[in-house]
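Quick check before the chapter quiz. The format below is the same one you will see on the exam, so make sure you can read both the input and the output lines.
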Amino acid sequence: MINTNQSSNESSAVYIHIPFCEHICYYCDFNKVFLEGQPVDEYVDLLIKEMELTAAKGPIAPVDTVFVGGGTPTTLNEAQIARLCTAIQEILPLKKEIEFSFEANPGDLSLSKLQAMQDHGVNRISMGVQSFNNELLKKIGRIHTVKDVYQSVENMRKIGFDNVSIDLIFSLPGQTEADFKDTLKQALDLDLPHYSAYSLIIEPKTIFYNLMQKGKLFLPGQDAEANMYDLLLNEMEKHGRKQYEISNFAKEGFQSKHNITYWSNEHYYGFGAGAHGYVGNTRYSNFGPIKKYMEPLQENKLPTFQQKELTLKEKMEEEMFLGLRKVDGVNKSHFKQKFGQDLDATFAHAIQKTTAKGWLENNEENVALTRSGRFLGNNVFQEFL
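Here is the expected output.
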């Protein structure tokens, strides 16, 4: 049984997983299934039951943020969205000023669906755009077009959503630096408050991984990838979107509070097939296959697949490799308060090695990546493990 004990002054976040997709993208390794023929209504019912069982087991700390991700949450219809969001509000102890995000695909965001979200508390949309080049979108297995992106943004503005983020991916197969520059221009011309941009990572069990194994995937290369990231940093700064994490940029006040919970190594609940959570000293994950996730819930049992009690050493390491993703880095006094240990002494060797290479800045208050360190984040993080 997961230990849900938290101190009374703590808050928490909630992640909810919707595993259904109308199409599987070639780079995606998230827990997902084709929508057609799936028991979506029953899945929503049992997802609600999981929240009820968790809430009955022990008090859930007041919830600051809810993020409904996937898969593709906007494959749910209006009635399913309303049912899920109503249950979230009824079961979970949501704070008044909550950030309530829904992940979306361009083309799924009809006015009626957006209205259903807004009517039931959703106040932030995160949309997976990836590129503003229709040819590239086809190459990576996306089924939307650039026209869908513009229509979706127009619909969001009509309904009144002002907290909107879009995701981009760079270093795509066949992508040039000029193409990424054009994608950035079109994205920034939309004048949205938040942007996320990630370099493509080839994950096992994806179509791209299989193509790479056969020598049929042609990527831009490390130099081009670094140039695209440099362009990203410069363009975001030029357009007033301040970088607050390696891959995330926002106008002041529009940073993703939910993702900051992850990077700050704070507690969050995971609901849904394959969802992960971190509560008390325990990291846990649910069964991923939908049938295996649903079976325990049909018998009023939680669908926990595995859980791990973290040691102090593991918690401190996680604090560093997650916290260093933030531009502000890890605060030394907060680290001492949280773990009862001195950050500089605990990680003296790693700090000395990475500062000597110019990847890390170490001052009286914080330890943080330098600008050049942000290009080599994974190299830095490994030194703290």
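If your answer matched, good. The first helix runs from residue 40 to 57.
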